[in-house]
Amino acid sequence: MQGWAKAPIFPSMEARKNTQMTSRHMLSHRRPGSLDEDRCYAAVAARDKAFDGTFVYSVATTGIYCRPSCPSRHARRENMAFHASCAAAEAAGFRPCKRCKPNASSLDDEHAQMVAEACRLIEGAEEPPTLETLAASVGLSAYHFHRVFKTVTGLTPKAYAIAHRQKRVRDNLKRSASVTEAIHEAGFNSSGRFYANADEVLGMTPTTFRTGGKDMQLRFAVAQCSLGAILVAASAKGIAAILLGDDPEMLVHDLEARFPKAELIGGDRKFEKVVAKAIALIEAPGTSFDLPLDVRGTAFQHRVWQALREIPAGTTVSYAELAERIGLPKAARAVAAACAANRIAVAIPCHRVVRNNGALAGYRWGIERKRQLIARETQS
Known about the structure:
By secondary structure, this protein is an alpha/beta fold. The chain folds into four domains: 95 residues, DNA Methylphosphotriester Repair Domain, CATH 3.40.10.10; 104 residues, Orthogonal Bundle (Arc Repressor Mutant, subunit A); 62 residues, Double Stranded RNA Binding Domain (2-Layer Sandwich); 81 residues, Orthogonal Bundle (Arc Repressor Mutant, subunit A), CATH 1.10.10.10. The protein contains 18 helices and ten strands. A hairpin with a 4-residue loop joins strand 1 and strand 2. The chain starts with a helix and ends with a helix. The N terminus is likely disordered.
């Protein structure tokens, strides 16, 4: 920019080159992009590391581009532009910042790669590797590795190993000749150790899980509400499903697919009170729901679903914000997948999660239902 003020009437080739480069910078700055610029600027102003890797910003007066979290002094808003990638910024004529090195792997990325390598080691081992073995495999001390692993995954290495073995049990139960065989194939040396926590892991006994819910009873009823058909199902432990849809028969088929061999029992007059409480959550937002839930899912899904229940009615959060709340700012996509896997509508309010720009994202039971639920809660 200084070259413009001091340029002679017949500038040299170098001066003209600098002028053309500056013009390209300004043109790039003025060209509208597909990014939400207000949100990008807010992330840069906060130096929010959670947005590193999602976009970069450039500064017309310096000709460089940076990560959102760059510690350099902030430029004036009118001199900043936002780009979806480093390649896009460089195509516009900007060069990478030497301080934050936006085109190089960040420390967070390196940690994520280390943890991914350790997870592969855990998943491929017959017996859970020791903390020291895992730390040595990625070149860190045991203490440092433990902290890095928990920061990235939200779990300790031991908890991750346990969760993985539990998943292996669930998978093995579907194909092994016996429950005992499935337990040992998953790496549990003692059946007793697994059975002690089996109900928490599977939501039912191993034999019941293996047989698709055989000998398990689910009471259910289908009713109508202002959003269409609603199915409520409950086990002896609590509400196992609240499903929404247009076709009552399809909702029943969905429940049957989940528990193919469970005994489905039509709800009696007493069960109608349970259904009424579920409908009240839709028709009268803010109504308390004091019924126990029978929630079945992975350890990660449980964390997401618990965080969903802590979102106040009438407010929304983004997937990125929800990921931050559970201590995993890089796990927005995994959080979205956990929301999609939720089978207890409204009571576990996944409808309160929106995209980063505030737009409504996918909803298992339809975008229009999500829109209406949010509108009702906002107005109540």
